[in-house]
Task: structure prediction
Amino acid sequence: MAVATNSFKQALANGDRQIGCWLSSAEASIAEIMGTAGFDWLVIDGEHGPNDIRSIRDQLMALQASSSHAVVRVPVGETWIIKQVLDAGAQTVLVPIIESAEQAREVVRACQYPPHGTRGVGASATRASRFGLVTDYIPTADQEICVLLQVENRAGIAALDEILTVEGVDGVFIGPADLSTDMGFQGDSAHPEVRKVIADALSRITAAGKAPGILGVSEEATQSYLDMGAQFLAVGLDVMLLVQSARALAAHWKAK
Result:
């Protein structure tokens, strides 16, 4: 039995637009709820969300029956954590703060088994192989792993063209908050200079045959990124959705 097809990876390769949302709560019940909303993809955030490998695993389990594809953002691009989230059942990883082609190559290697990569071979006891039920997991897993890299500072932008030459990278995600802050605008991702850099980066990613991605947290920003050609676009965060709705509801009724 071969590993299941990664529908998200396939959609990116086909050029299909994919609309997603962030999961920052680190709660499986919230992930399950968000999985009913109709998003194409959901990011389990291991960088800024209070996650560990168990909570990441639990959210992957909660999304198992959902049509929303689970993307796991690891806290750092190191082999040990990438190995763990892949064994926990993730088929798509998002890796932050990529600043060079060599970093990109290391991430790709971490997502592949030897002899091409450095991923540890121990799948039979993991969720990834359904605990050995997927008998051909090891020979078929590599081709279904989707590798997404985050470029989110000036160093990454400067190295973007080289990063885009790395084989095995499916998409590159621009991080507006980090990029704007590194450019000296303290999180003002709407600044014209930042927008200009983002638009150019998304264009270069597309031209290189990779999928361009980004996160918008306002209607104006999200529409701007769509107009720039973003293909996989996150349009909100679970925590922010809860906060905004709850505060608006409280304010509405307290004003009566």
